[in-house]
Write a structure and sequence with these properties.
The structure holds two protein chains of two kinds.
Chain A (H helix, E strand, L loop, with lengths): L9 H9 L2 H12 L3 E2 H4 L7 H13 L3 E6 L2 E6 L2 H35 L1
Antiparallel strand pairs in A: 1-3, 2-3
Helix pairs in contact in A: 1-4
Chain B lengths: L2 H4 L1 E8 L3 H9 L1 H4 L8 E3 L6 E5 L2 H5 L5 E11 L3 E8 L3 H5 L3 E9 L5 E8 L4 H6 L12 H15 L6
Classes of the chains: A alpha+beta, B alpha+beta.
């Protein structure tokens, strides 16, 4: 599953899993309705059951999907936690800088405005 | 598709800490006030025991009741499994809904790393179901379980929570 090795981080697994359109589509399907079986996910995709299983496995390895057994069925749940951590680590940080750059621009333009 | 599946939410995070440290961070007030939205918990850690999450001073100033979440312990197997009911009294709407059920599972892996799985059965509680996945601004109370678990991980791994 997730390793804490020096070369491959959790983020690498998540980014790699998200890099494929089929896998993003599967996540969207689960976002719409969580806790689906393979049988329920399959019809939405034009590929073999084996292909869908392979993609689900990659999502599971990245921690984006968690499976639970319910009777004879294996249900797939979207786990939003890795996306949250990536958001906190990669998006918030840069957005902050963007916002402060925009604020600086606003101040500058307003001062110029006042000057003219 | 069974009803059970649609009303179940699953959250998982991997934390580099011992199962005991994670257990303590979930069940001890001196820990719970240090991450996520804070507030001290009170757990009577036995089957049938009472659970209560008290609002912090800041939360109380925003109008939350002192006992903002209440519940009952259903199963307690430290430091591996905790099953409890969870009933937020944030407002009249959530208070009127059915009591939900939380399951914490802490699995120890190799290398001092644990997998924490939080399963929330929100049957009969659509308001709670809409609130706990987060997706909103954490500063406005919209962090939900993903933000709470992410902050728990930060605290245990770095000694500091993300939240200011």
């Amino acid at each position: 599953m997730v390793t804490y090795g020096p070369d491959v981080t959790d983020d690498d697994h998540v980014f790699k899993a998200l890099s494929d359109p089929t896998r993003r589509f599967l996540l969207d399907l689960l976002f719409e309705r969580d806790g689906r079986s393979l049988k329920e996910l399959e019809p939405g995709l034009e590929m073999t059951r084996f292909g869908v299983m392979k993609h689900l496995r990659i999502l599971e390895d990245a921690g984006l999907v968690v499976t639970r057994r319910s009777g004879r069925e294996k249900l797939h749940f979207l786990n939003p936690v890795p996306i949250r951590t990536i958001h906190d680590r990669w998006i918030d940080k840069y957005r902050e800088r963007e916002v402060s750059a925009l604020l600086a621009l606003k101040t500058e333009l307003e001062e110029k405005d006042r000057g003219s | 598709m069974t009803d059970k599946a649609t009303t179940m939410q699953v959250y998982r995070i991997v934390i580099k800490a011992s199962a005991q440290a994670i257990w303590d961070a979930i069940t001890k007030p001196e820990w719970t006030e240090r991450y996520s939205y804070g507030g001290r918990v009170e757990y009577d850690l036995k089957s049938g025991g009472r659970f209560c999450h008290k609002a912090s001073a800041e939360m109380k100033s925003m109008g939350l009741p002192d006992e903002m979440i209440v519940g009952k312990v259903i199963e307690c197997d430290p430091p591996r499994k905790l099953v409890q009911t969870w009933h937020p009294l944030f407002n009249a709407a959530t208070a009127a809904e059915a009591h939900t059920r939380l399951t914490y599972e802490i699995q120890e892996n190799q290398g001092g790393v644990c997998t924490v799985t939080l399963t929330h059965d929100v049957t009969g509680a659509p308001m709670v179901a809409g609130m706990v996945p987060g997706g909103g601004d954490p500063a406005q109370g919209g962090g939900g379980w993903p933000w709470m678990l992410s902050d728990l991980k930060s605290l245990l791994e770095t000694g500091k929570a993300m939240a200011a």
